[in-house]
Design a protein that fits this description.
The chain is mainly alpha-helical. It contains 4 helices and 2 strands. The protein is elongated. The protein starts with a helix and ends with a helix.
Length: 151
């Protein structure tokens, strides 16, 4: 019976201290964990059609236009309406990289590889939004230039 009472007391003390701690936990949300913050407005997609600088070699290019309403599924890929080899002359969009026509073993295929068919796995839109957290990223070119000047 003593063990049961001491266990109950321990649980009561732990739950009281947890309730106190929950109000004092710092979060990125800026709210207590048990409060629901009002959602922010959905940021606008940067729709400039201007290519963005890549930060490192082999970085997938970002999408410089809106893709709202684009259908990409097993039967249809709206991106290829402009970015396929046959359509780039008319659309003036860059052609997808030759790597998108390679299979796992590095063999070239006549059509787009199934591994590279769903564009948004790697390519993303850019939004006009304030970063949620501070970003101290330094691109590779700046980093190597800084390192070579330090020597």
């Amino acid at each position: 019976m003593k063990n049961f009472i001491s266990t109950c007391l321990s649980l009561l003390i732990c739950s009281a201290s947890f309730a106190y701690a929950a109000d004092n936990i710092a979060t990125l949300r800026g709210e207590a964990l048990d409060k629901q913050k009002a959602p922010s407005a959905i940021p606008k997609v940067i729709n400039s059609d201007i290519k963005q600088v890549r930060n490192y070699p082999m970085q997938p290019p970002v999408i410089p236009h809106t893709t709202r309403g684009y259908e990409v599924n097993l039967n249809n890929n709206k991106c290829m309406a402009c970015h396929s080899r046959e359509r780039t002359g008319e659309s003036q969009a860059p052609m997808v990289s030759v790597t998108h026509f390679m299979d796992r073993e590095g063999n070239f295929l006549a059509e787009l590889s199934p591994r590279r068919y769903f564009c948004n796995q790697c390519h993303v839109n850019q939004f006009d939004a304030k970063p949620e957290v501070e970003n101290t990223f330094v691109d590779m070119h700046t980093l190597t230039k800084r390192n070579s000047q330090a020597k």
